[in-house]
Amino acid sequence: MKVAVWGTGNVGRPAIRAVLGHAELTLSGVIVSSEAKEGRDAGELAGVPATGVVASRDAAAVLAGKPDVVVYTASADVRPDEAMADLLSCLEAGCNVVSTSFYDFLHPALAPKDVLDKVNSACERGNASLLVSGIDPGWAMDALPLFASGVVAGIEQIRCQEIFNYALYDAPDIVRYVIGFGQPMDELPLMLHSEVLLKIWEPMVRLVAQGLNIELDEVTTQVERRPLEKTVEVAGMGSFEKGGQGAFRFEVMGMKNGLPLIVAEHITRIDVDCAPDWPTPPTEGGCHRVLIKGNPDLDITVHATDHFDSGAAAGGNATAANRLVNAIPSVCAAKAGVLSALDVAVLPGGAQFKR
After folding, report:
1. DSSP state string for 289-330
2. Cα–Cα distance between 128 and 336 in angstroms, integer?
3. Nearest-angstrom CA–CA distance, 204 and 216
4. pLDDT tens across 263-279, in order?
5. Its pTM surpasses 0.85
6. Residue 110, C-beta contacts closer than 8 angstroms, at least 6 positions apart
């Protein structure tokens, strides 16, 4: 199967490497947005030996080469209309798409009807499918808890956590202005508004519930924030002033009979000394955890270390890319339309073994 990778950022680079390492896939094209990357070999951009595939800013020309799949990793957060146009152009060209970029389609049943109809129509015209995933939201919040639930009896609660130090995350504007670190405590940052939390994490809670055949009563949110007790300097991001937001903790809770049955929780800091009474990761930077209260109580902690890209988030980004790339054969075999994680729940990595 021929695969094009659209974007060579934090997820695009490991996606290129995953395609190159997959026994059933061939890298056929790479789409970039910057003039500085155009014409460079995909291997150079991804930190591996040359591939003979050069990056292009001409998306139409790459799609004209009829890849079976596009791995779309370009940001949609700050360019939603352009990203949607990119997605529709891929699907209508007959290319299946796997992507980390479109939160609306993490759980198709929750997607806005007008947007879902538009994408499904494009899928039908191109006989193509779309799968959206990541790590969180993504496999650490849907596939992993579903698997783990199968080894526990008498389950009372499933809690999926991300614990992370955003001083180590390479996205300065998002860290400061979307997530709100360093901003005044009397201003609730965009990410922590209830409607945003539900948009991004309710799909994870609902997917787990659906996978467990549980009908939730409702999904609610809860947010707690802490100020910085000192001014901190963060490399590449500058100063975060004392008194500004230094840590937050939110829960997106799937409720049943008044109890939080399935919970997505984030515990996030810009400085390791902020909110010392909250849970901390066992390794530098952060981790993902699945905590199941039952018999036995189960604690699965995940931390990934990438061999190519630096930074605490690199390992997680690589798992998100690998999840999507390894799903490609299943996505290609699926019926046309928008898929969920439940459609590709178990994906062994046999095709990635070095031979």
Report:
1. EEEEEEES-EEEEE----SSS-STTHHHHHHHHHHHHHHHHH
2. 5
3. 13
4. 999 999 999 999 999 99
5. yes
6. 202, 203, 206
